[in-house]
Design a protein that fits this description.
The complex is a heterodimer of chains A (about 120) and B (about 110).
Chain A (H helix, E strand, L loop, with lengths): L2 E5 L3 E2 L5 E8 L6 E8 L5 E7 L8 E3 L7 E6 L4 E6 L8 E10 L2 E2 L8 E5 L2
Parallel strand pairs in A: 2-11
Antiparallel strand pairs in A: 1-3, 3-8, 4-5, 4-9, 5-6, 7-8, 9-10, 9-11
Chain B lengths: L3 E4 L2 E4 L5 E7 L7 E6 L6 E5 L3 E2 L7 E6 L2 E6 L9 E6 L6 E2 L3 E5 L1
Parallel strand pairs in B: 2-11
Antiparallel strand pairs in B: 1-3, 3-8, 4-5, 4-9, 5-6, 7-8, 9-10, 9-11
Classes of the chains: A mainly beta (about 120), B mainly beta (about 110).
Chain lengths: ~120, ~110
Amino acid sequence: EVQLVDSGGDLVQPGRSLRLSCTGSGFSFGDYGMSWFRQAPGKGLEWVGHIRSKIYGGTREYAASLKGRFTISRDDSKSIAYLQMNSLKTEDTAMYYCSRGYGGDSWLFDYWGQGTLVTVSS
Amino acid sequence: DIQMTQSPSSLSASVGDRVTITCRASQGIRDNLGWFQQKPGKAPKRLIYAVFSLQSGVPSRFSGSGSGTEFTLTVSNLQPEDFATYYCLQYDRYPLTFGGGTKVELK
């Protein structure tokens, strides 16, 4: 059974850093690109970024507003994708979700993590 | 960036109704569009991908259509479990962008 588990969310002060994890199981993790999304309280969904699978170079794409502060990485040996968030702002407060992105020859988003809550507040 | 304009932002409907939600893209996105359902406190769930392909396990009362820049999600015979918020997502170009969402409420 395919599963994604998001973890690492916490209450942090503005300006601090946090790393989120997305652990996959039940599928060949390294064959898939992984995406991160977020949803601020009471708001809509927002795409954060994507990391391609190694076969596609393992390169990354980000929402322009987050580029430079957020970094996505992956450890295929552990089936984990990471979202490193630096210089956090109050407006980064949101539920963060990972999803299986690109696999084979098509975009998926067929499986999602349960979400992990990041609260940025002093 | 490709803007996805979703309408309506909310609607009230009764069990058994037919509901239609529209997303307009600011430029052509080929068939790179999906529809997602989200219930409070839960992760989004994929309903439709590639405009009209139904996700396995999703009831056939959900259907997608459209092309180019205008796309539609239709829910026929609305059921109690269908009251939720729906989002379209374009994945044709980065940055990936969502519509603003449509909240389907019980009339």
